[in-house]
């Protein structure tokens, strides 16, 4: 409205002015408009040292022929992309546009005067003042609009910027893609903004700078509006300020092209710089650990150095037609590195100002004992950076147990078929299982390189005569090397509501099976849809996918609810998004879900696309991401083991025990860093999620001293017989009555999990407010035998109510003598009453202890409540509380100058007036 009022002010001349005043008013309008014009230009993007190669602002310069369509852009045509969808350049403010048109009309008589004063002849308010954008109005279907190609210079990196707005999108999403294409127009690299839906104000997104792929010739921008399961009939999406920027190219690489090293293998990082305009005085290498901790630095001074002169070269002539080709490569021999994930950052400085930074990642791999079991990866984006010849060894290094790979090749590609057969055979030799994936036909090369444009497979397989000849030679080669085949890529649910699904899949399976030995078929299937009820054995597995990764609890519940119907249930197991969650949270979540996979014996769990940088497993160039080692360590150490249960630890750390009878591993973590002392066997080692291992120290009693943090850690070489003995020990009852002095008996059922007869004894170590027998309880068990042992306990008058952890100390002779402890939780007190004390201080400093008495029974209960200070030098207070069935009451105890009691512990004694039981609750006095 401010722009409109200024424009209107430029239209009306003051009364009484005959010639000069109107001209002055018009000139003032020009200056006001000039000031206003600066605002939208500034809004087009923040000031940056990057050079703008191309920008589409969808203003008049992008629509020279005034047809409301950006020049040289084109829209995708087809049944899914209806021509009736309105796509056009429109003003962001129609009111401002109307005012500008009126201003241009009324300014006409003064245009010659303005030209004499230096104003361009074609200057118009409507062009300079009004900001425009490209609008897509929805009416069902989808829209894709593509820019003309922009030439790529190999010496630069490129950064992509764009603005998006949405209005009323319920099912559709809008996003921008920037695609590197080769000379033939094939996509060789893709970078996308996040997807926007709902109602979103104008949001600018800037993607990180990336070097172009070596075979990239051009860049194109692609604006997408795509529906989900349903298409929006109403709503709109807007695109503006699409910008391609070039920056000096700073690349950091390691001497191992995939960034993987064995322990003890030297590593070198190299920095390559090109396309710089400003003089660089020094380079700084920085080596960091997985959590960003500093490890080492190295500086390379370039001032007055021959390398610096070679970097910048002679100043280009004023008529130079192309970019300077001078470049610099310098290297740093990294210090000796142990197992783990590392980042090498390189910073460029002009004098003392840091101008550019680039990063490379590497991983040093420790050889771990174990096998990856059901954990694998799905490959096949069409431009994966790993060749078939190097894939088997590389997958083995990464700890992959299963791999899905696209196998639909052109029937004339005999070399590709031979390479594929060779790869499958090498995978078999290395113990890696494979699933052949029939995803996209070979003639759909564009969709292989552009996952969002992939076509649903079900319609393409309707007629066997169309696809059977293409697969005959390939399946003949591969039938002896892989028996599992998935029909459709991950997330392709086109068979979901297919009529006569079982018959259709059975027919496809028979056609495929005709080329060799019997095969087993899997289908992708969404978690949120019920499994097919007409299953007849036409396929043997479904691979369950979900739009967002489940939490550990959600995955556990969904797997519990999965029916046992003869179908194998595979799942996708993607890490949480790198941009939305902290690294520690992503690691805890991934390890937790991998443990859940083993608990439920899921046959296979795939990472859907390990090259997706949002998942953090790998970078797009196949160098390691920060989640690779946590995934590899967990997969290798627990992949071949079965879930056994969880031990009760002295300091209550959470844990899971996995075992195959010969080898056992414990995964342990805590909400707070703590120390656990527990005997787990001889020569126990601790390995963190990065694969770094160390011997675990022991105390004077032979117990391991285990440092437990918030990230999961792995204890290997634990004694499986001792772990299973602890898990099998069953204590009952689990609740003691709060009756002081009365003997109560605990029963411990024990099972011999050792490989020989055992003899020994155990003693109970109770809380100091309990009494128990002094003589040990003897244990004599034959192989696999079970027996019950008993221990008597009695509570003293000052025994507290609540949960207590008790310890049973065992001395067992089997193949050798073992000393170890078992911890169990016991609840003390009645089940029919709950007392919940709380404290607060009032403004005068008095301490108020509120006692809430909750009656869980169907009868009235009456208690005398006494409150005593820790020293009992003050007179205790007494209150009577009566509470009806299924009700609660509250009573306050008040102490003046109560802050004197801070740091002490008070005691609440609640005596049942209808029985002899006394409930004792310690109450710490804290702020």
Count of distinct strands: 50
In terms of quaternary structure, what is this? single chain
Query: Uncertain segments of ≥5 residues (pLDDT<50)?
Result: 1-21, 31-48, 303-325, 445-452
Assess the beta-strand content as a share of residues: 35-45%
Q: Level of helix content? A: 10-25%
Let me know the average pLDDT.
84
User: Main β-sheet: number of strands, strand sense, barrel status?
Assistant: 13 strands, antiparallel
Which secondary-structure class do the elements indicate? alpha+beta
Shape: globular
Gyration radius over CA: 36 Å
Please tally the helical runs, counting DSSP H or I stretches of 4 or more residues. Answer: 15
Distance between the termini: 55 Å
Describe this structure in words.
The protein is of the alpha+beta class and 927 residues long. It is built from 15 helices and 50 strands. A hairpin with a 3-residue loop joins strand 42 (802-813) and strand 43. Helix 1 packs antiparallel against helix 2.
């Amino acid at each position: 409205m401010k722009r409109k009022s200024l424009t209107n002010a430029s239209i009306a001349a003051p009364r009484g002015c005959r010639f000069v005043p109107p001209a002055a008013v018009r000139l003032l309008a020009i200056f006001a408009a000039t000031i206003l014009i600066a605002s939208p230009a500034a809004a087009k993007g923040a000031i940056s040292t990057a050079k703008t190669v191309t920008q589409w602002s969808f203003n008049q310069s992008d629509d020279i022929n005034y047809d409301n369509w950006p020049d040289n852009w084109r829209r995708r045509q087809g049944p899914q992309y209806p021509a009736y969808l309105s796509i056009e350049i429109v003003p962001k403010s129609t009111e401002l546009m109307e005012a500008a048109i009126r201003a241009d009309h009324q300014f006409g008589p003064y245009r010659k005067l303005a030209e004499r004063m230096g104003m361009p002849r074609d200057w118009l308010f409507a062009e300079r003042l009004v900001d425009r954008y490209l609008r897509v109005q929805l009416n069902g279907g989808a829209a894709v609009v593509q820019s003309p190609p922009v030439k790529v210079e190999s010496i630069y990196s490129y950064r992509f910027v764009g603005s998006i707005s949405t209005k009323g999108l319920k099912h559709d999403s809008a996003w921008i893609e920037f695609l590197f294409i080769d000379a033939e127009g094939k996509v060789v690299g893709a970078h996308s903004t996040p997807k926007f839906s709902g109602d979103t104000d104008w949001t600018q997104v800037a993607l990180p700078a990336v070097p172009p792929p070596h075979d990239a010739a051009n860049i194109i921008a692609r604006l997408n509006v795509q529906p989900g399961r349903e298409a929006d009939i109403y709503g709109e999406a807007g695109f503006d300020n699409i910008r391609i920027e070039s920056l000096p190219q700073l690349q950091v690489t390691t001497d191992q092209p995939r960034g993987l090293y064995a322990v003890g293998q030297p590593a070198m990082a190299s920095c390559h710089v090109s396309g710089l305009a400003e003089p660089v005085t020094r380079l700084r290498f920085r080596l960091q650990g997985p959590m960003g901790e500093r490890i080492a630095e190295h500086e390379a001074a370039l001032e007055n150095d021959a390398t610096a002169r070679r970097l910048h070269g002679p100043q280009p002539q004023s008529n130079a037609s192309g970019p300077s080709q001078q470049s610099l490569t310098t290297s740093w021999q990294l210090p000796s590195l142990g197992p783990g994930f590392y980042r090498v950052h390189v910073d460029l400085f002009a004098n003392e100002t840091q101008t550019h930074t680039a990063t490379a990642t590497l991983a040093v791999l420790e050889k771990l004992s174990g096998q990856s079991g059901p954990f694998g990866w799905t490959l096949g984006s069409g431009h994966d950076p790993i060749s078939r010849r190097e894939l088997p060894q590389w997958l083995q290094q990464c700890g992959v147990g299963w791999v899905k790979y696209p196998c639909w090749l052109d029937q004339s590609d005999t070399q590709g078929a031979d390479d594929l057969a060779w790869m499958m055979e090498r995978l078999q030799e290395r113990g890696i299982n494979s699933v052949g994936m029939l995803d996209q036909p070979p003639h759909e090369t564009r969709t292989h390189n552009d996952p969002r444009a992939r076509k649903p497979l079900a319609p393409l397989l309707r007629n066997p005569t169309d696809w059977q000849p293409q697969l005959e030679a390939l399946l003949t080669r591969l039938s002896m090397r892989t028996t599992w085949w998935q029909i459709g890529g991950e997330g392709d649910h086109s068979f979901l509501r297919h009529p006569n699904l079982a018959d259709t899949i059975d027919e496809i399976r028979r056609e495929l099976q005709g080329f060799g030995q019997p095969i087993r078929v899997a289908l992708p299937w969404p978690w949120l849809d019920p499994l097919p009820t007409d299953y007849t054995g036409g396929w043997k597995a479904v691979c369950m996918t979900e739009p967002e990764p489940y939490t550990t609890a959600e995955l556990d519940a969904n797997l519990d609810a999965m029916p046992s119907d003869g179908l194998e249930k595979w799942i996708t197991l993607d890490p949480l998004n790198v941009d939305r969650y902290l690294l520690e949270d992503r690691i805890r979540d991934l390890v937790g879900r991998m443990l859940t996979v083993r608990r439920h014996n899921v046959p296979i769990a795939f990472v859907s696309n390990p090259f997706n940088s949002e998942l953090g497993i790998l970078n797009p160039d196949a160098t390691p991401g920060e989640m690779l080692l946590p995934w590899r360590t967990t997969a290798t150490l627990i992949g071949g083991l079965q879930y056994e249960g969880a031990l009760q630890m002295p300091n209550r750390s959470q844990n899971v025990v996995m075992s195959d009878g010969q080898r056992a591993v414990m995964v342990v973590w805590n909400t707070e860093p703590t120390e656990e002392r527990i005997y787990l066997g001889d020569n126990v080692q601790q390995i963190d999620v990065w694969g770094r291992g160390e011997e675990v120290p022991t105390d004077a009693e032979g117990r391991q001293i285990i440092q437990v943090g918030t990230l999961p850690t792995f204890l290997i070489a634990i004694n499986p017989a001792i772990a299973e003995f602890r898990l099998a020990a069953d204590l009952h009852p689990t609740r003691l009555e709060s009756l002081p002095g009365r003997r109560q008996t605990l029963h411990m059922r024990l099972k011999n999990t050792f490989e020989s007869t055992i003899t020994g004894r155990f003693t109970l170590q109770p809380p100091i407010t309990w009494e128990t027998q002094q003589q040990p309880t003897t244990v004599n068990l034959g192989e696999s035998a079970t027996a019950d042992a008993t221990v008597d306990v009695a509570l003293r008058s000052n025994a507290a109510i609540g949960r207590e952890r008790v310890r049973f100390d065992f001395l067992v002779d089997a193949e050798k003598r073992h000393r170890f402890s078992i911890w169990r939780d016991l609840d003390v007190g009645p089940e029919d009453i709950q007392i919940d004390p709380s404290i607060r201080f009032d403004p005068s400093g008095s301490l108020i202890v509120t006692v809430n008495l909750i009656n869980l029974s169907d009868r009235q209960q009456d208690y005398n409540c006494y409150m005593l200070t820790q020293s009992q030098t003050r007179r205790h207070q007494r209150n009577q509380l009566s509470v009806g069935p299924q009700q609660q009451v509250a009573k306050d105890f008040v102490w003046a100058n109560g802050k004197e009691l801070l740091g002490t512990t008070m005691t609440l004694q609640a005596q049942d007036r209808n029985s002899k039981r006394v409930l004792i609750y310690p109450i710490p006095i804290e702020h």
